[in-house]
């Protein structure tokens, strides 16, 4: 695998101060774009729905239930 920083010549590299990074955001984005094809993400397994009759032992306070019920993602 080639060195991801091999395209930088010595005069392009900037010295970094203590605790600083010596790469610009554009360089970081370019490095990330070149590395992305090497990162394989396994397909996620889809979770099967669980019937409410199988859910046991969960206690939710009335205030929490109202809060979740008022969220458009869950309750409306």
Description:
By secondary structure, the chain is an all-alpha fold. It has a domain at 1-39. The chain has helices at 25-35, 62-69. It is elongated. The termini are far apart. The mean pLDDT is 78.
In short:
The protein is an all-alpha fold.
Q: How many strand units?
A: 0
* Strand and helix order: HH
> What is the rounded Rg?
25 Å
Class by alpha and beta content: mainly alpha
What is the 3D shape?
A: elongated
Largest sheet: none
Distance between the termini: 51 Å
Task: State the helicity in percent bands.
Answer: 25-40%
Q: How much β-strand is present in the residues?
A: under 5%
Provide the low-confidence segments as ranges: none
For this structure, the quaternary state is single chain
Count of DSSP H/I helices = 2
| Rounded average pLDDT | 78
List the defining traits of the structure above.
single chain, 76 residues, mainly alpha, elongated
What is the fold's blueprint, element by element?
Elements: H1 25-35, H2 62-69
